[in-house]
């Protein structure tokens, strides 16, 4: 192996693994249970899992049709639309949070009507957490699924049409099953992104234990007052992510499957 | 007979027979223009023969409704006899009563979903996530049938195709021949009014092709509606079809019975496919049947073709002096000599030089350059006797009765 590649690669490995090692080495292993209890881990973890799952569900419902639209519609409009909807991928999340406040806040462009007509307030509520996470995570699902739809064999959709299958039925009975692996991969990416969401959440939904304080926010809080608790919480979050990825990897993300 | 060998486009649109297809297909794709008149009676198998890029697949896609016409009309007679097209009663809603599927002039376009066209794709396009049984049951399910009855009907089709053992398999676990059968079963199970096959045997190896071909012939014979088989293999067309339509560069150059197309090719391409020598020329002496060829040389063409001397068309060919003609000579009708033949030999004698020798299965094909140049089939023994080699000068002879001349439909449409 040529050294100009080998040396930076080794440094890269060390750089990525060192923080992980630091976390594991400095963990307060003997009194982990107490540290966790103090940090209010149960409510934060439950809120995190609930919100990330809800955000993924919303992303599936809205994102899959959107991905289909982007994959099938041609022309400049589609290109522009694709660039816009994937903007949150590169957006600083805090900016996303501010933008959400401007749009959906109590005085926001659309938020004032939500409040006036439905009495619905999003900022600083659990619903707001889900909105913030969806905003940031959905593009991950959209681009993954769009790629799969784009490379999916449209010949099969034609075959279905000649057999009398209408477009939506074909989508449901042919296209979706064919892109299932990518759908799962996209959902996992989306869920993982939502689980780790911090910037947009704290800006749009605030940091209230029990209602909007998800794991990342709890870790941030604990870091100032209770470093051991922060480490313990980080470990839990890490464990959950690793567990989910490992489970899905066995079932869905085998090498060679289309993603 | 001669009229049939002519351009289909020069005839008025064929009236639709019961359940038949009548189409004038015009599709423009940049510089390429497909402009073809196609008709097929119910129960008839029409082979669409043509080289790559001739518009065969475009024609099929237009008929299937996967591509809209730019001009023309596609109609399949709605009052079809016995094609069973409507056990589920959706038919009248799907298909307009006049049977017109596509007519830009009247803004009519029935999409593929509603046409009831059975299309067997060249690459089969079986659904990889469904079992063989569910692939065949797909059309019934798509039209709203419940799973159990749809599967029951599909199982009947698999039985008929000898595929019952494979019902639970996924398409990925099928051989090429099996996949071809499943694709045909799936298309027929959709109870189509029109059956379209795109190069049905192209993806198979030689041995499987032979086996599937005879089977396919049987299944096509059982189908009550019109069938179009697109192919570039002349043998496939001759074996499977009741009629052959030849497409070149988007135009119909010949449309007729297989025997006619095989004996009276209308273009170079068809002649080459059929393994015949074809020349263009003009009749210069009606008494001796003398034809001066465009590429140089003269042939006396006194052959009757198709064993139908009573056909008024045949007499017309030879009596219209000065008319543009095609002259066809089978390679086996020409003999080679290394010395000038004796007097009393056939009227056609000319000289040439051997430019190529190729061994076919049971004979040798010799390419001779001369006026005219010709492909000549002789026995391997004759090659040895004549000491043939590239560059060797030879005499060619052919009986006038073995040479057939007929009007060139491409250059001077003959009105009968």
Describe this structure in words.
The complex is a heterodimer of chains A (259) and B (416). Chain A is mainly α and 259 residues long. Chain A is built from 13 helices and no strands. The two termini of chain A are 30 Å apart. Mean pLDDT of chain A is 88; it is low at 255-259. With 416 residues, chain B is α+β, with helices and mostly antiparallel strands. Chain B has helices at 2-5, 56-64, 91-94, 112-115, 132-142, 147-160, 176-189, 206-222, 234-240, 258-263, 268-273, 312-319, 380-386; strands at residues 21-29, 32-40, 45-49, 71-76, 100-103, 108-109, 117-120, 194-198, 227-231, 243-248, 251-256, 277-285, 290-293, 298-300, 324-329, 334-337, 348-359, 364-370, 374-378, 393-398, 403-407. A six-stranded mixed sheet of chain B has the order 7-8-9-3-10-11, sandwiched between helices. Chain B starts with a helix and ends in a 9-residue tail after the last strand. Chains A and B meet through helix 8 and helix 9 of A and helix 4, strand 7 and helix 5 of B.
What distinguishing features does this structure have?
heterodimer, A: 259 residues, mainly alpha, MetI-like fold, 0% strand, globular, B: 416 residues, alpha+beta, Rossmann fold, OB fold (Dihydrolipoamide Acetyltransferase, E2P), 2 domains, six-stranded mixed beta sheet, five-stranded antiparallel beta sheet, 13 helices, 21 strands, disordered N terminus, disordered C terminus
């Amino acid at each position: 192996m040529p050294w100009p590649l080998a040396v930076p690669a080794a440094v890269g490995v060390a750089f990525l693994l060192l923080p992980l090692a630091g976390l594991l080495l400095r963990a307060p292993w003997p009194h982990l249970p107490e540290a966790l209890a103090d940090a209010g881990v149960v409510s934060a973890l439950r809120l995190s899992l609930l919100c990330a799952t809800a955000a993924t569900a919303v992303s599936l419902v809205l994102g899959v049709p959107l991905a289909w639209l982007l994959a099938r519609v041609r022309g400049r409009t589609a290109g522009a639309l694709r660039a816009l909807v994937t903007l949150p991928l590169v957006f600083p999340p805090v900016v996303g949070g501010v933008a959400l406040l401007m749009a959906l806040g109590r005085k926001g462009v659309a938020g004032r009507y939500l409040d006036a007509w439905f009495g619905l307030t999003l900022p600083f509520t659990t619903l707001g957490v889900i909105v913030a996470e969806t905003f940031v995570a959905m593009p991950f699902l959209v681009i993954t699924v769009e790629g799969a739809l784009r490379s999916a064999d449209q010949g099969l959709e034609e075959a279905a049409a000649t057999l009398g299958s209408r477009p939506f039925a074909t989508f449901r009975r042919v296209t979706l099953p064919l892109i299932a692996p990518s759908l799962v991969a996209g959902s996992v990416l989306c869920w993982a992104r939502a689980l780790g969401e911090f910037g947009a959440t704290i800006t749009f939904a605030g940091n209230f234990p029990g209602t909007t304080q998800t794991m990342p926010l709890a870790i941030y809080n604990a870091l100032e007052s209770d470093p051991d608790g922060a480490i313990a919480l980080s470990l839990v979050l890490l464990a959950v992510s690793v567990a989910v990825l490992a489970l899905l990897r066995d079932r869905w993300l085998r090498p060679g499957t289309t993603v | 007979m001669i009229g049939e060998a002519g351009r289909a486009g020069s005839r008025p649109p064929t009236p639709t027979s019961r359940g038949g297809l009548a189409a004038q297909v015009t599709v423009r794709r940049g510089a390429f223009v497909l402009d073809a008149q196609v008709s097929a009676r119910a129960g008839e198998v029409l082979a669409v023969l043509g080289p790559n890029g001739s518009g065969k697949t475009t024609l099929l896609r237009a008929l299937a409704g996967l591509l809209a016409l730019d001009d023309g009309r596609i109609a399949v007679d709605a009052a079809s006899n016995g094609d069973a097209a409507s056990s589920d009663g959706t038919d009248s809603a799907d298909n307009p009563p006049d049977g017109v599927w596509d007519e830009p002039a009247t803004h009519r376009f029935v999409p593929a979903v509603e046409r009831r066209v059975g299309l067997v794709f060249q690459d089969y396009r079986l659904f990889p996530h469904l079992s063989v049984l569910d692939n065949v049951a797909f059309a019934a399910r798509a039209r709203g049938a419940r799973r159990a009855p749809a599967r029951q009907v599909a199982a009947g089709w698999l039985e008929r195709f000898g595929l019952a053992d494979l019902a639970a398999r996924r398409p990925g676990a099928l051989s090429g021949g099996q996949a071809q059968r499943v694709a045909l079963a799936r298309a027929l199970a959709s109870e189509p009014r029109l059956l379209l096959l795109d190069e049905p045997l192209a993806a198979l190896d030689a041995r499987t092709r032979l086996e599937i071909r005879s089977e396919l012939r049987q299944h096509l014979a059982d189908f009550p509606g019109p069938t179009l088989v697109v192919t570039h293999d002349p043998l496939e067309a001759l074996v499977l079809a009741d009629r052959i339509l030849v497409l070149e560069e988007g135009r119909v150059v010949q449309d007729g019975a297989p025997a006619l197309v095989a004996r009276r090719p209308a273009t170079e391409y068809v002649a080459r496919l059929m393994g015949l020598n074809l020349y263009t020329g003009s009749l210069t002496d009606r008494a001796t049947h003398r034809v001066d060829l465009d590429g140089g040389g003269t042939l006396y063409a006194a052959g009757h073709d198709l064993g139908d001397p009573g056909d008024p068309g045949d007499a017309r060919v030879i009596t219209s002096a000065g008319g543009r003609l095609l002259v066809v000579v089978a390679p086996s009708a020409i003999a080679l000599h290394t010395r000038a033949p004796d007097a009393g030999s056939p009227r056609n004698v000319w000289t040439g030089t051997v430019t190529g020798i190729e061994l076919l299965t049971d004979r040798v094909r010799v390419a001779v350059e001369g006026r005219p140049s010709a492909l000549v089939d002789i026995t391997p023994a004759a090659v040895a006797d004549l000491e043939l080699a590239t560059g060797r000068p030879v005499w060619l002879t052919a009986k006038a009765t073995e040479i057939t001349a007929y009007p060139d439909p491409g250059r001077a449409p003959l009105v009968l």
